[in-house]
């Protein structure tokens, strides 16, 4: 009887195992395992990886944040990903300081706090002194009147698959650090299926190509945005930044606020940008009182340097990197000499 039962179980399990092995092999062929010498997390690599999207890439490659080495973590939305390139920043720093880009498109202040939690999950308390959290800010991040960190894309990824668990006001690893990357690699078949069958995946792209849909006509550059309504900025997001400063003061590391440039054609037509200039002042004072620092890059706002309202041209990013490093040195976050 036992042999009969085992035989029936094998008939059920064997096809599933075969499918898993086939998918895993396909996933490894499409993208070989990450090289062991990779030491930098850069969310710009997400679309070229089996993880495909920035929140998943940042969450599941976060083991690169582990260790005791000094590290600068660039955190924020897509203008941080595009504008602050980690290689360019690292080239201007003293040797031994790693630079990681954890930017996720559309990230708000809640999402920045979750990114800090992610770094803490990968670094126990005794290894955080060398961390520098750089939050890339612009006035658009302060327009929201609600706060819900667990609804952010990064937090939703961290709550999948049981690799992380909630701990106090943050997250902790739910697996041994040595096992983290092994579990992520075992999840490759799932990500392969998910990314292949998604609305932007390979299957849909192939179907669209078979349908012979004509290419979309070229779209002219958009006109300047219309003037925005002058409304007060809610205090919720400013309070959220101060809460992150509290967390870093307790948890370890250094917090740096960086006011990123906005295309002058946007700032000149948006009264909320002007409101932000005065509304941010109490926040900056509070962050500095908690050991944080502030770097202002807003004057790098020439329209010719931007592709749109907030994202710099590739030819501009080296100057953004230089200005950031200059500010970090002026605030004594890093040594003044290389």
Number of strands: 7
Note the main sheet. 5 strands, parallel
Radius of gyration: 22 Å
Helix proportion: 40-55%
Arithmetic mean of pLDDT: 85
Label the structural class.
Answer: alpha/beta
**Order of strands side by side in the largest beta sheet?**
2-1-3-6-7
Individual helix count: 14
**What would you call the shape?**
globular
Strand content: 5-15%
Give the distance, in angstroms, between the N- and C-terminal Cα atoms.
Answer: 74 Å
Low-confidence stretches: 13-30, 214-219
Strand/helix succession: HHEHHEHEHEEHHHHEHHHEH
Question: Would you mind describing this structure in some detail?
Answer:
The chain has 14 helices and seven strands. Mean pLDDT is 85; it is low at 13-30 and 214-219. The strands form two sheets. The protein has a five-stranded parallel sheet with strand order 2-1-3-6-7, with helices on both faces. The protein starts with a helix and ends in an 8-residue tail after the last helix. The longest helix is centred in the first third of the chain and has 29 residues, at 2-30. It is an alpha/beta fold and 338 residues long.
